[in-house]
Amino acid sequence: MIPSNGSSSTEVSEFLLNCFVSSPNWKHWLSVPLSLLFLLAMGANATLLITIRLEASLHEPMYYLLSLLSILDIVLCLTVIPKVLLVFWFDLRPISFSACFLQMFIMNNFLPMESCTFLVMAYDRYVAICHPLRYPSIITDQFVIKAGIFIVMRNTLVTAPIPILSARLHYCGNNIIENCICANLSVSKLSCDNVTLNKIYQLIVAWTLIGSDIILIFVSYTFILRAVMRLKAKGAAAKALSTCSSHFILILFFSTVLLVFIFTHMAKNKVSHDVPVLLNVLHHVIPAALNPIVYGVRTQEIKQGIWRLMKKGQ
């Protein structure tokens, strides 16, 4: 801890999360919808995972990818939201040095994993629409296993240096993080060292991983739309688009909240500091809560699977 006389000779052993400083009332009204969104995210994703696990008809590559997305959402929510709610409800602001950097690692690793999963799902839809006859031979269980290994390895290897670089910094002064979470730049700027490398590396990683994923996803949908427009059979275009609509809506949830956060952060001199903080928190729970609901509502096979499980439980 920092000594009471203000000396910088003692290393920081914990941080204090000091979110919504200029808008303290946000904590009170935000805690209710945030806790409801958290419960919804946990319940909906757990229901989806159980349904896919128990229903043999859902043991297909597309639903395995959806299961991976649900697992990522659950881990991200559990990493961020409970601590935020503890700060809101009980003012439990301290977070240990190791817990802070563990949270940083998971956030920086799992968010790109989500975007990479969306990319693989976009490829799945591309093959299904543009090469339907080859779909069973291309999108197999082995493909999903290889894609899962690629998703984990790519993002872990590329994002691991972010918390490592931050943890190696010398923290000898202020230990108050002006954020609700241990975001890399919010933490590293408290260091007594030069953090230029941290900033540059995070910027490169963000645009290289998530930026390239989003670009490739929209390129995939460009090819899909072009293929759909060529369909001449009655109702074929509508049917093809309906198979992609759920996935496209999830991508919009993910990318829209993320882009709003990025642009708000870039215009931080024109908006309250609390706005990017709020968006950063919501980005870890809103897509997680809505993703399984969208697929559950719009996918007939999942709805039928949930209904059969409910009937078995009666």
UniProtKB/TrEMBL annotation:
Q: Which UniProt keywords apply?
A: G-protein coupled receptor, Membrane, Olfaction, Receptor, Sensory transduction, Transducer, Transmembrane, Transmembrane helix
Q: Which GO terms describe its biological process?
A: cellular response to lipid
Domain G-protein coupled receptors family 1 profile, which positions? 44-295
TM stretches of this protein? 30-51, 63-89, 95-122, 143-165, 204-228, 240-263, 275-297
A Pfam family hit: 7tm_4
- Top-level taxon: Eukaryota
**Which GO molecular function annotations are given, in alphabetical order?**
G protein-coupled receptor activity; olfactory receptor activity
Give the principal location in a single coarse category: membrane
Protein name, entry field: Olfactory receptor 56A3-like
Concerning Gene3D superfamilies, the annotation shows: Rhodopsin 7-helix transmembrane proteins (1.20.1070.10)
